[in-house]
């Protein structure tokens, strides 16, 4: 699995935040709550062209920040229990994941434990890594695709 290298322009995002180890499927639950909140705002989830799963740096105990979010033009009128983030322009290694949610762990394992330790690129510190969901995402069915963006210097 060879990544593409892309430069992604800066963007704003609004979403719901989780912090922990995701040991009990908290992130999929967060997505369910978030999409319910989005629907309550009058946004049809099927009309969304992009969603992001922003991932913060993991601490020594394995805890990390995860934000299920959508792009935002502005930060006015953000619903209660939502957070806002501004992501600066950056270069990324982009890995494609095809298939199930269960296999997503294998993709992350490959990226972080096999590819990154041996590659020529240095991961950019203190920058969100993220999952990118677009029209290729099909609820983690066999043909479902997402991209995983790893910021590099």
Automatic annotation (TrEMBL):
Residues 1-153 form the AraC effector-binding domain. Transmembrane segments: none annotated. Pfam families: Cass2 (PF14526). It comes from the Bacteria. Coiled coil: none annotated. Gene3D superfamilies: Regulatory factor, effector binding domain. Signal peptide: none annotated. InterPro entries: AraC_E-bd, Cass2, Reg_factor_effector_dom_sf, YobU-like_regulator. SUPFAM superfamilies: Probable bacterial effector-binding domain (SSF55136). This is AraC effector-binding domain-containing protein. It comes from Kosmotoga pacifica. The lineage of its organism: Bacteria, Thermotogati, Thermotogota, Thermotogae, Kosmotogales.
